[in-house]
Amino acid sequence: MANILELENLSKYFTTTGGGAFSRRKGVVKAVDGVNLTVAEGETVGLVGESGCGKTTVGRTVIKLYEPTAGKIIFEGEDITKYSRSKMKPLRSKMQMIFQDPFASLNPRKTVGSIIQSAFDIHDVKPVGGSEKEIGNLLERVGLNPEHINRFPHEFSGGQRQRIGIARALALKPKLIVADEPVSALDVSIQAQVVNLLDDLQEELKLSYLFIAHDLSVVQHISDRVVVMYLGKVMEEATTQDLFTNPRHPYTKALLSAVPIPDPIIERKRERIILKGDLPSPMNPPSGCVFNTRCWKATDICRTTAPQVLQISPKHSLACHFPE
Amino acid sequence: MKPFLEVKDLSVAFPTPDGLVKAADGISFELNQGETLAIVGESGSGKSVTNLAIMGLHNRAKTQISGSVNINLPDRSIDVISSTEDEVRKLRGSAISMIFQDPMSSLHPYYSVGDQISEAWRIYNKGSKSDGIKRATEMIDLVGIPDAAKRVREFPHQFSGGMRQRVMIAMALVNNPKLIIADEPTTALDVTVQSQIIQLLRDMQKEFNMAILLVTHDLGVVAEVADRVCVMYAGKIVEQAKVDEIYYRPAQPYTVGLLQSIPRVDQLQGKRLNAIQGQPPSLINLPKGCSFAERCEFKKHVAGNLCTEVAPALEEKADQHFARCHLSAAQIQDLAMAAK
């Protein structure tokens, strides 16, 4: 299958003023550093990692909310890295985003209808049968009552608002959806509803997802392939089956072992790998392998030399000197 | 011996312009020393409201509270609900203390962590400031923050999220409490840090034989730490039992639904999740019958309109296993197996 999205060596650095508010000394945060990633048509790629690992920055750079510092973004075979805003505009209808917080991402002063309508207005789209009918269809498609078209966001619950966000993203018939933590703000029972909805929509509309999340159980459920990031770099990438049954990078292993399993007997028997310390500051990442400060296998080479990407099978690669 | 904490028929309601919000209704449970009780439920199910009532933290002028919350100390027994503010204040931070969800907003940015940790200790022990800092340093060391002597003088912004949560734990433990109420203590943290904090809480519990009341929505964390579980829905306890009973022999359709709706990291499953349809009812206008009836998949197996007409009582379905449902435990287990 053709790749709808390819990232080649993508980097995004942010500059900061160091120290006090008036200091001119500039620091650099390497939020994303040399990431390679592909999403095939109709595929769901899960992007996981802890806070500050750069997963959200990858998502935002892909749809060019951020300008990449280096590397390439190839969308449907077209190199869009250097595209200007006006050149991006027609492409934007093909790539849409679903945001994490359904409370902050909908304008409280606009009705559901006009929130979705604005997608048509911006891209000058005139849906067949009129936009009102199309909005009704969209609302129905995501499991909302089409009669609620004139309601305001505050009249909906969290799960329903997330459905509005999904309807808005679908309005322009996109091919790629970047979903940034789309279910983490929702209650457990509502989470499952939204995950199922995303699954159904993908099947029906042949969507590709870049699914960004920290919850490994949800990622495992929804993804075909998974990419694990740590401090701006890709640690391991594999098919979901491979990654969850046979993780080879120590970080992936630790991450998986930290996820509690809702099964008391299994939990009592489980041996956890408990990582020492916290995530180092991305302002000042460790030299060599970025994971070396928390890794139980780290030796001198890990502290001095960044590991090369090791392709251990056609769909399984990792960056580690001492794979498990 | 009496259990350390006895909650009996606790109800908390808030009058609002739209009507009375019955946030917690007829809550009863007990908690012993050294035991961990988890309260599980979704937002608005009443779990935090119950905890705040146990701590006596509701504004009495604006809240209607009934029932009793007995704290049984070795020398005396205190009912938090009927005691005066002063009596309850003497309990807080000494015999019972609390760990909040968000370590970012629960620490004061202007005071050093040493000052904040020692504050409660100095109040109860009448210690000097330097004694307080000494005690805070011990505590910081105890909760596994390296370089305690230096860190004690630092401010919250100099700590990471996980380290701040350790500071919160140090603060809660400074007077050797008998009961810790932990309200979503790891929700704001990353998984690798979450497992560190859970480990720390368990070590502390073992060392000081504390009772822990853990409030969470994460059924994975519950499976890991709880001895017993209360499942709450729309302000009521709908099921209460030992942890294994809840996970392997759930006797209430909501619990069944919750357990089946979560994906598991150790099980690859391609199929759809078994989501619970609909959403929780409004607490102002609760349905006449069972609060869960509208979303219940098993309702069709109950004769007539029983579910929508009569609210089921909390019954003992098996030994020490309580649930609210018109169906029997065996019926629910059969239906749960079939739904899988």
Mean pLDDT of chain B: 92
Strand order of the largest sheet of chain A: 6-7-8-3-9-10-12-11
Calculate the terminal CA-CA distance of chain A, rounded to whole Å: 31 Å
**Biggest sheet features of chain B:** 8 strands, mixed
Overall CATH architecture of the largest domain in chain B: 3-Layer(aba) Sandwich
Order of helices and strands of chain A: EEEHEEHEHHHEHEHEEHHHHEE
What is the count of structural domains of chain B? 2
Q: Could you say what the CATH topology of chain A is called?
A: Rossmann fold
The top level CATH class name of the largest domain in chain B? Alpha Beta
Shape of chain B: globular
Give a structural overview.
The complex is a heterodimer of chains A (324) and B (340). Chain A is α/β, with parallel strands linked by helices and 324 residues long. Chain A has one domain (3-94, 174-319): 3-Layer(aba) Sandwich (Rossmann fold), CATH 3.40.50.300. Chain A has helices at residues 55-62, 85-92, 112-122, 131-141, 158-170, 188-205, 216-222, 240-245, 250-258, 264-269, 300-304, and strands at 3-17, 26-40, 44-48, 70-75, 78-79, 95-98, 176-180, 208-213, 225-230, 233-239, 309-313, 316-319. In chain A, β1 and β2 (26-40) form a beta hairpin. The two termini of chain A are 31 Å apart. Chain B has 340 residues and is an alpha/beta fold. The model of chain B has no long low-confidence stretch (mean pLDDT 92). An 8-stranded mixed sheet of chain B has the order 6-7-8-3-9-10-12-11, with helices on both faces. In chain B, strands 2-1-4-5 form a 4-stranded antiparallel sheet. Chains A and B meet through α5, α6, α7, α8 and α9 of A and α7, α8, α9, α10 and α11 of B.
